[in-house]
Amino acid sequence: MTDYPEIAARFARDTAGHKMTVLHDDGLYRHLKFMNPEHGSIGAFQLITWPYNLVVKTGWTFHFDIDATEDMFEVFRRTARTGEINPGYWEQKVRAGRDEIEGYEPDLLKWEIATTIAQWMRDDLEVRVSAQAQKLGFTPAELKTTPGIRKELARQVRQEWRTANRQLREAVHDHFFSDFADYNIEYEEEAHRALHDFSYRPEGDDSEYPYYFADWHEWQLKDFTPGFLWSCYAIRRGIDLWDAARKPAEVAA
Predict the structure, then answer these.
(1) How far apart are CA 54 and CA 79, in angstroms?
(2) What is the Cβ-side half-sphere exposure of residue 1, based on CA atoms within 13 angstroms?
(3) Looking at residue 253, what is its pLDDT?
(4) Which of 85, 102, 188, 218 has the greatest number of CB atoms lying within 10 Å of its CB?
C-alpha cells in the first residue's frame, strides 16, 4: 500500500483546531506541544528535537536520528511535501519504536489470496483449452496459428471452468473466511496456520498436486501501523505549524 487516505482523514479530524505551544526553543533544542485546548489530550502530540535527533510523542513514541543532518526538521521538510508523508523513507531513520512501525494487515492477506486464485483459474483455463484441443485433434502448433480456434475452444470449456472456479472459491472461502472456519485470520499466527493447512482437490481430479499456497511465506502481509502513519502526519503538520509561526518574524526582520 502506498496511499493512506483513511489515516490522513483520521489525523485531520483528530487535530482540527490544534494550536502550538512552545515549551522550549533554543536553536535546535525544541519542545513543541500541539493540541486543541477544547479537547485536552485527545489528539495532542509533541515534537522534541536536538541535533541529529527528533522524538514524536503521539500516544506512540518514535525516535528518529540521522547523522547527516543536524536539524531534523529539515530532513522531514526535504523528503515530503507540505501535508504529505514519506513513511517508506522515514522508517529507515527510526532508532526507537521500531516494533511499532509495521503490523499484520488482514486486507493484504485477502488481496494475496484473491490474486493467487485468479492466477490459478487463468492457468486452469489454459489447461482445459489445451486438453480440448487435443481431444479434437488439434496440434499445439495449430492451436497457436489457427485463427479463432483458442476463443472457440475456450467457449466450449467455459461452463465447466466456471463451475470449477466457483467450487474453488467456495473452498477457499469456507477455509479462511466462513463464520465456521477453524481460523481467525484477524491474527497473524492464525493466518499463517490457515495458509499452511489449506489444500483443495476438486472432485474427480487425479492430478499429482492439489491446490495449495506454495509461496505464501514470501507474501507481504504487513503494512505500516496506523500509529506510525499518524505519527508521520503529526511530524509534518507540526513542522508546518512551526514554520508558519516563525514566518512573520522572519519577514519583519
Answers:
(1) 15
(2) 23
(3) 34
(4) 85
Cβ–Cβ under 8 Å, residues 157 and 134: no
Rg (CA), the chain: 27
Give the number of other CB atoms < 10 A from CB of residue 248.
Answer: 9
If DSSP codes are grouped into helix, strand and coil, which group holds residue 187? coil
d(CA 118, CA 122): 6
Q: Comparing C-alpha atoms, which of 97, 52, 46, 58 is closest to residue 75?
A: 52
**3-state percent breakdown (helix, strand, coil) of the chain, nearest 5:** 50, 15, 30
Instruction: Report which DSSP code applies to 12.
Output: H
Q: How far is CA 252 from the centre of its chain?
A: 45
Query: What is the reported pTM?
Result: 0.76
The per-residue pLDDT for 189 is: 96
| Distance of alpha carbon 63 from the chain centroid | 22
